[in-house]
């Protein structure tokens, strides 16, 4: 028993073809019947008109009615067709069969003939009961000599032929339907079989077995679906790996400062240290505490961005001032590696509409990364310029660079190129989303061993926005 989609495909395909075949057969049978009937009618009509035309040109004496009717019967007779001569009332005056008849013909072909056209009637003969066609033609010789020549021919042989055609066409329809049924089952199986395979694989994936893959080279939408599910499984495996790496990394990042804090706390509690050592211990505790706070805040920011709960207070922001402030903040860290920061900009302020603190967070992350991955005694160039209606910030270093493989994923959440440098792997992911919230873009170009270039583009502030932001900062 076929179920589900397979049965629906077979049933609908079968019904569609059946209806189409029935329509075609009906049209064919009607056309064949019309062809046969019209052929018989046209033959009788053409013959009778030709004979009557010839008869009119002859000099046959029509004063004697009996002789006149006999001549009509002689000239108008047709093989395998019965001829009747009727008067205007429809009474039968003569029959080609030789039997006398005083009956009155009341079929529709007689009135049609009296009106001047060639009448045709198809029906059952009142005497024999067989199917016949009657074709009537008016014969008018003047002096009130009006007669009707009525040909009656049996349609039984024609109808038998039509029945044979119906039987044969019916057998052809049955054969076509059997073929269609067989093909539709194969078609349904070709669709349902891969769906069943995909369903089974999806069920395994739902149980957590993401190593399962859909095998087979399927075409069209089925192929796209299987490729999508395989890609989804690969992405889940990769995401799980990234998650595991993140958990391992963040555990290490949290454990290191906590160990330092706990160790110095226990040391200070034991007492007996001079003021300098105590001061150094408290300084380390403060530094590691700030480090913990930074990690937690980064996680909280990412959570807010994921849930669209990040609030920003937008106002007029000078990009130049933000970058100068960041350079002061990271100066000590850069000095440790003897790295020089170089800012290149025109005299203008490069104003944008944005949240100054969030933009500072973005550029601090970008510049801090540049310092972290740069070599000793190198330069980091920071360039500000305007491109049409955008403010463009370019941060370029000559550090270790990023390979093409890692560059494609470096902005993914939790992803870290080098776990040894620490961090949560969220910095660039957060920066990307914050820039997008400002209507801008963040792009990275890098070559392994030759440094990295980060380009941030933000919409420049218009005069109308400048005026409005000075009056009332916008909270979004």
Automatic annotation (TrEMBL):
One of its GO terms (molecular function) is kinase activity. It comes from the Bacteria. It catalyses: ATP + protein L-histidine = ADP + protein N-phospho-L-histidine. Keywords: ATP-binding, Cell membrane, Kinase, Membrane, Nucleotide-binding, Phosphoprotein, Transferase, Transmembrane, Transmembrane helix, Two-component regulatory system. It is an enzyme of class 2 (transferase). It is found in: Cell membrane. Residues 189-241 form the HAMP domain. The keyword Ligase does not apply. The keyword Glycoprotein does not apply. It is a multi-pass membrane protein. This is histidine kinase. It comes from Paenibacillus polygoni.
């Amino acid at each position: 028993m076929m179920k589900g989609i397979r049965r629906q495909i077979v049933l609908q395909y079968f019904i569609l073809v059946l209806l189409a075949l029935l329509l075609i057969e009906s049209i064919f049978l009607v056309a064949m019947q019309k062809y046969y009937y019209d052929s018989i009618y046209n033959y009788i009509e053409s013959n009778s008109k030709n004979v009557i035309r010839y008869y009119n040109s002859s000099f046959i004496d029509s004063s004697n009615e009996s002789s006149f009717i006999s001549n009509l019967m002689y000239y108008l007779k047709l093989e395998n067709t019965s001829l009747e001569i009727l008067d205007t009332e429809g009474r039968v005056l003569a029959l080609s069969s030789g039997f006398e008849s005083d009956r009155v013909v009341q079929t529709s072909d007689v009135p049609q003939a009296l009106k001047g056209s060639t009448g045709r009637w198809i029906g059952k003969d009142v005497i024999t009961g067989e199917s016949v066609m009657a074709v009537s033609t008016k014969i008018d010789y003047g002096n009130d000599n009006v007669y009707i020549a009525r040909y009656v021919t049996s349609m039984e042989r024609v109808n038998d032929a039509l029945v044979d055609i119906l039987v044969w066409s019916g057998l052809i329809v049955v054969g076509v339907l059997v073929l269609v049924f067989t093909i539709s089952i194969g078609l349904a199986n070709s669709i349902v079989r891969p769906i069943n395979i995909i369903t089974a694989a999806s069920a395994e994936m739902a149980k957590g077995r993401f190593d399962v893959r859909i095998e087979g080279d399927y075409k069209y939408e089925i192929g796209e679906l299987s490729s999508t599910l395989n890609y989804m499984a690969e992405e889940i495996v990769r995401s799980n790996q990234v998650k595991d790496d993140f958990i391992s990394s963040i555990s290490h990042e949290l454990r290191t400062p906590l160990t330092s804090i706990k160790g110095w706390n226990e040391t200070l509690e034991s007492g007996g240290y001079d003021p300098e050592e105590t001061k150094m211990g408290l300084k380390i505790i403060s530094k590691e505490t700030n480090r913990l706070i930074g990690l937690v805040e980064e996680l909280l920011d990412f959570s807010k961005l994921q849930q669209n709960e990040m609030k920003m207070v937008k106002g007029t922001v000078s990009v130049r001032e933000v970058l100068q402030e960041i350079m002061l903040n990271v100066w000590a860290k850069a000095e440790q590696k003897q790295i020089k920061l170089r800012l290149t900009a025109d005299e203008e302020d490069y104003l944008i509409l944005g949240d100054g603190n969030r933009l500072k967070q973005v550029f601090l992350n970008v510049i801090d990364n540049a310092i972290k991955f740069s070599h000793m005694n190198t330069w980091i160039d920071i360039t500000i310029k305007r491109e049409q209606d955008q403010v463009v910030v370019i941060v370029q270093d000559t550090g270790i660079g990023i390979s093409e493989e890692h560059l494609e994923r470096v902005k993914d959440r939790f992803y870290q190129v080098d776990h040894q440098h620490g961090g949560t792997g969220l910095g660039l992911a957060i920066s990307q989303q914050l820039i997008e919230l400002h209507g801008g873009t963040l792009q990275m170009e890098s070559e392994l061993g030759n440094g990295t270039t980060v380009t941030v583009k933000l919409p420049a502030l218009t005069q109308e926005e400048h005026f409005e932001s000075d009056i009332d900062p916008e909270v979004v």
